[in-house]
Specification:
mainly alpha, 74% helix
């Protein structure tokens, strides 16, 4: 796979705005572990290798277990996630796949049981942000660092 373009170079002013949103989400008060689980789950759904590489590494550095990362795609069948994480993951799936799901009331209600109003907005902004990053990386074929190393070795 070949990168299509570098969005950071092509439109730095809008990327700067996205980085501002990213910084706001990171300092929003949501748990770092929850943020990384949400980013990883949305990236799994969207098939974003670049973001999966980044966020699984970030999660590991922050102390996330390999077991929880490996089971994240099947979180509904695992008891390793807290009720708050489960509510966030369901909301992540509902909003990442919003064209199919319509953001069901049951997912919203479960999320609201675990998150107050302000946290609900922060979580929703987190989900929106990672979906934008996924679309940038997948759409422009951003290469994760291991791919760069492999491409250089093959050349």
């Amino acid at each position: 796979m070949t990168a299509r373009l570098n969005p950071y170079a092509a439109a730095p002013e809008v990327i700067k705005a996205m980085l501002g949103l990213e910084e706001a989400v990171a300092s929003s008060g949501l748990e770092h572990s929850l943020i990384e689980l949400v980013k990883t789950r949305a990236s799994q759904i969207n098939g974003c290798a670049f973001c999966l590489h980044m966020h699984t590494q970030d999660a590991r550095r922050a102390g996330e277990s390999e077991e929880r990362l490996h089971l994240l795609a099947a979180w509904r069948e695992s008891s390793l996630y807290t009720p708050r994480e489960r509510a966030a993951l369901a909301w992540t799936e509902a909003l990442t796949l919003v064209a199919q799901t319509g953001a069901p009331d049951a997912d919203y209600e479960a999320m609201r049981e675990a998150f107050d109003e302000a946290e609900a907005v922060k979580l929703t902004m987190l989900i929106g942000a990672i979906n934008v990053w996924n679309r940038l990386a997948v759409g422009f074929r951003s290469q994760h660092p291991k791919a760069w190393s492999a491409a250089k070795a093959a050349a």
